[in-house]
Specification:
This protein is mainly alpha-helical. The chain is about 60% helix and about 5% strand. The chain has a five-stranded parallel β-sheet, sandwiched between helices. Helix 1 links the parallel strand 1 and strand 2. The N and C termini lie far apart (about 70 Å).
């Protein structure tokens, strides 16, 4: 999906918009610029495609030419006053969705006054416009592209204006991963939509991003375990980290695939035919964000709990079979301590719990990426989600019953073996 949405009136600024689109596509890449009919696939619903593109864009450029404000239809009515005017609808949608709108004045146009604009887009009057003049076209468009890069963090396909001098491919990959994480945390549906370009490389990027996120999350969790165990050698700590991180990564991949298959069945039951690769592409980013939020909250919460019980991390590690050598099961009951230790303890526990709460809210918001990707109504998306939760709940219930039955059968067997011994 594109980063830059071009809103313009064809009979007003078609030529200038075409020149600007060519310049932006040359610099940022054709996949990052949306221009009405040229960016909509055959067979797509035009109105829905426009709405989806605006909702997932980083910024809208409202191209204003000399006749943008005064354009009339065949009956002599001003187009901007009509609720069905596409230009008006585009700007209204962007303002309602919180997408930044930048007025771009071309061919000597002036910024409309507030009383000349419909009430629904009157806010446009308050936004500082950028002017692209014919005599300074290269300079003005360069300034516009720098603004798009610096203020709206839109990456460029060309290194001249985007990369730091002396940067290495590893540094660039790390920086892009960090920027993607930041955008995933702040604008999940927009970030996920931008990764769906229809190319095979989309799935490779999603898989690599999921692996990176699982590794980072594993580092956060295992770091807490290792900091609590000061007596182990560096080799022992490295062995635990490698083994633990590989186990968590594999578990994350398996869980991602199982949830994707369940969601595939749920969407089919809801009457929407989708493919598994469409679901795994979105699910990879959802699991990445959820796992990082869970891991970060666990780390902070664990440090807070360690001020009540210094062995909290170690006890938890022994309980899940992480393999620490110190004896004990779950450790002593948490002992409340007063004094200065209460301050970091309460801060850690509160921050960890808040992180989990925000992560849960993030998951709810990010789940809308499926509705954006498949272009369905909220009702159908809610139906698919309900079926998916029902499937997962059934699997967990059956698994829990089997586990309890196996545990119930093993206890008498162990008791008989002890009596015979």
């Amino acid at each position: 999906m594109p980063d830059i949405f071009l809103s313009y009136r064809r009979q007003d600024s078609s030529s200038a918009t075409g020149r600007l689109a060519d310049r932006l596509e040359e610099h940022f890449g054709p996949g990052r610029v949306f221009r009405d009919h040229e960016s909509i696939s055959p067979g797509d619903d035009f109105t829905e495609a426009i709405r989806r593109a605006i909702a997932t864009s980083t910024v809208m450029l409202a191209i204003i030419g000399p006749d943008w404000l005064t354009a009339h239809d065949e009956q002599g009515r001003r187009r901007l006053e009509q609720s069905g005017d596409f230009v008006r609808q585009e700007i209204e949608t962007a303002l309602q969705a919180g997408v930044p709108v930048v007025p771009v004045l071309v061919e000597g146009a002036k910024m409309p006054a507030r009383n000349e604009l419909p009430k629904s887009i009157a806010e446009l009057w308050r936004i500082n416009a950028i002017e692209l003049s014919e005599s300074r076209w290269p300079f003005d468009t360069d300034q516009l592209m720098r603004t798009l890069q610096s203020r709206y963090v839109i990456e460029s396909d060309r290194p001249a204006m985007g990369e730091l001098p002396g940067s290495t491919p590893l540094f660039g990959s790390g920086a892009r991963f960090a920027l993607s994480l930041l955008e995933l945390a702040t604008h999940p549906t927009r970030m996920i939509a931008k990764q769906q370009t229809g190319q095979a490389i989309d799935h490779v990027r999603a898989f690599v991003f999921l692996l990176g996120s699982l590794l980072v999350g594993s580092l956060l969790v295992l770091l807490g375990f290792q900091l609590q165990d000061q007596g182990s050698s560096a080799a022992e700590l490295a062995r635990r980290f490698v083994g633990g991180s590989l186990g968590l990564v594999l578990a994350g991949l398996v869980i991602t695939m199982l949830m994707s298959i369940a969601l595939l069945l749920a969407w089919r039951a809801a009457g929407r035919r989708v493919e598994l690769q469409q679901i795994t592409l979105v699910m990879a980013y959802l699991v990445s964000g959820a796992w990082l939020g869970l891991a970060a909250g666990a780390l902070v919460f664990g440090f807070g709990a360690s001020f009540y019980d210094p062995g909290w991390f170690g006890a938890f590690a022994r309980a899940i079979g992480f393999g620490l050598d110190a004896p004990g099961a779950l450790g002593p009951v948490l002992e409340r301590r007063l004094g200065l230790q209460a301050i970091p303890a309460v801060a850690g526990l509160g921050t960890g719990a808040l992180t989990w709460l925000l992560s849960a809210l993030w998951c709810i918001v990010a789940w809308g990426a499926f509705r954006q990707a498949f272009g369905v109504t909220r009702g159908r998306a809610a139906a698919a989600t309900a079926v998916w939760l029902l499937l997962l709940g059934s699997v967990l219930l059956i698994g829990g019953l089997l586990a309890s039955q196996l545990a119930g059968e093993s206890v008498p067997a162990v008791a008989r073996a002890l009596r015979q011994g």
